[in-house]
Amino acid sequence: MPANAPARPAPSPARIATFAAIPIALVVGIASFWVLGGFPSSPDSSPVPAEAPQLAPTPAAVCRALVARLPQELGGLHRRQVTAGGEQNAAFGDPPIVLSCGGPAPSVPADAQLLGLSDVCWYPEEQSGRTVWHTIDRQVPLSVVVPKAADGSWLVNLSPTIVATVPTAPTGDLHC
């Protein structure tokens, strides 16, 4: 220190305590916020409930091929794990859009409105807060549950994979 430089006063104990307390308080506050659920995990990280009926060998093979070819992202929605039947079910986004392969064929009324979307014939059924879309022109039945927050345009994103992996079947008197 130069001879003519003024001496620095010693920091006060209050200032030292303040500088020590601020980082500790921040760490304790953030940890408490996290422990109390302030930083929830990603909403689409938990598995989506799904049923997995036992399938005969041919439908099981078709479903495995379909699910294996589905993308990891569907129109900006990330693929999610399912609770059962990962070889026959797939889910995307939150709230989830859920595709199920190999379940029972729907009972379609003769006067039902059928929609042909990208070479797949669909029968929509409105259910509480969602629409369940059923294929009626495939050898292995498929259903896609779409929440009300979404629209049926997601079916168009699934159609190329469906057309490539699930063989068509006659629709009888029903026409798309």
What do these coordinates show?
The protein has 176 residues and is of the alpha+beta class. The chain has two domains: 9-40; 57-165, Protein Transport Mog1p, Chain A, CATH 3.40.1000. It has helices at 13-35, 57-69, 153-165, and strands spanning 73-74, 77-80, 89-92, 97-101, 115-117, 120-127, 130-135, 142-147. Helix 2 packs across helix 3 (153-165). The mean pLDDT is 86. This is DUF3515 family protein.
Largest sheet entry: 8 strands, antiparallel
Proportion of helical residues: 25-40%
The strand count comes to 8
What coarse outline follows from CA principal-axis ratios?
A: rod-shaped
* Spans where pLDDT lies below 50 across 5 or more residues: none
Distance between the termini: 92 Å
Strand order of the largest sheet: 1-2-3-4-8-7-6-5
What pattern of helices and strands is seen along the backbone? HHEEEEEEEEH
In short:
By secondary structure, the protein is α+β, with helices and mostly antiparallel strands. It is built from 3 helices and 8 strands.
Write the layout of secondary structure elements.
Elements: H1 13-35, H2 57-69, E1 73-74, E2 77-80, E3 89-92, E4 97-101, E5 115-117, E6 120-127, E7 130-135, E8 142-147, H3 153-165
Helix pairs in contact: 2-3
Structure keywords:
176 residues, alpha+beta, Protein Transport Mog1p, Chain A, 2 domains, eight-stranded antiparallel sheet, 3 helices, 8 strands, rod-shaped
